[in-house]
Amino acid sequence: MANSKKNSSWLMPSFDCEPVKKSPATKRIFSQTLKNDISQIPSFYEITQKKKNISSLTALLEACEPRKSNELVVSKQKQQEMLDWLKYKIKRGQPYALILCGPSGCGKTATIKVLAKENGFNVTEWITPIDQAMDENNRVMRQGDRFEEFLVRATRYSSVLSNHSKRLLLVKEFPNVYFEDKNSFHSLIQRYFEFGKEPIIFICTETGNSKLLQTLFPPDIRQKYGIDLININPVTQTAMKNALKRASSILNSIAGQMLYVCQSKVDEILSNSIGDIRNSLLNLIFISLKVPEEQENNCSSREVNLGLLHGIGRVINPKRTKDGNSWKFVHNPDEIAAFFQSQATVFLHFLQENYLNTMRGIDEVNACANILSLADALNSEWRDPNLTKVILSFAVRGVMVSNEKPVSGWNPVRKPLNDRLDQTRCLAAAEVRWYESIINSKLKNTTEVSNLDLESVIDE
């Protein structure tokens, strides 16, 4: 009984040493030390606050990506066309293809990802690899072979890590080998429609002189395999305004230590917007960086509120002032050119569309047309990055000097039409017809000569 009272615990220790008896003073010292150690550990709120301070540009862009369909910048009509294709067009276990075509930054990829997620699709995206891969025979695999392997594996084998029952393939970057060998790509499309089991979406970013859609997906290929096509327009001003407003609150909350996005910065980006949400968001992040005062004073001062339309107006309707026996421009051409260096091509297109609005004589029109034609030809030279500054300065100064007496009155600035691709198609069709006329005329002459020879032989 004495032993049972002494060992009140039912678990007997397995060690020979006796348990240490802690005095009340030792307990107080231990508890005080534990409190001091716990006080030095940062709280959960402080940890979460530190995690919110994001400085990576990639992380900032990912945080601003839309998560819901009402946050997308694509019009409701185009969203409904994509939804109809996802719901009613495709069938499980059968191959279907869709082409999303539109300018850069119009929200093609973000829209299809959000709509696919809301409708229970798991998106598997192809990313062109940079490193080289080896096959089972230790030979370097071509990008085309790896792309074909991706299509075969992604359509025939499902992932065990995905909870979605439906899958969707997304191809945004095409291997460069197919641009020179389009027949290989067409044969790959044929094999996909023979053995594929999942729908696939191709993203075609069409710029001014791009021929991606006509090279890889000509009309006969689209008609043969039933490939659907949806054209996405540039982002409207209203959608751009709502997207930047949502992004400004996100940026201020997660990167307040380095960014300060205010309404004046958003208005400045909107005035220079060309329908590219990605470009507008990058510019908003750049101009919202917090710059120290000593560095801000050292920066060259320029008019930050100059928009694209105002800049075009100052060029096509230049104002002059007398300076003694000579004259000078009210707005310096070099400052205008320096402000729009990042949008040189867009600025030249706007000048070509609007310079005739304020011209009086045919001589002035001829001079400006020659200047803009030369600037457009030089702008196609991409090997020298410094040439863009010279081209823009030459075009701005040339138009302003040539237009000595601009037509006064209200002349709204027009947006250039996106018909360069149509013009290229028309020129190509005209060239084909011209060659056909030459070949047909030669065949006709040959036929006539052969008939004459036959008639002469018969007469003899």
State the distance separating the first and last CA atoms: 148 Å
Query: What string, H for helix and E for strand, traces the elements in order?
Result: HHHHHEHEHEHHEHHEHHHHHEEHHHHH
- Estimated radius of gyration: 34 Å
Major sheet summary line: 5 strands, parallel
Average pLDDT over all residues: 75
Globally, the shape reads globular
Total of helices:
21
Structural class given helices, strands, pairing? alpha/beta
Number of strands: 7
Strand order of the largest sheet: 2-3-4-1-5
What is the percentage of strand-forming residues? Answer: 5-15%
Helical residues, percent: 40-55%
Low-confidence stretches: 4-9, 41-51, 296-304
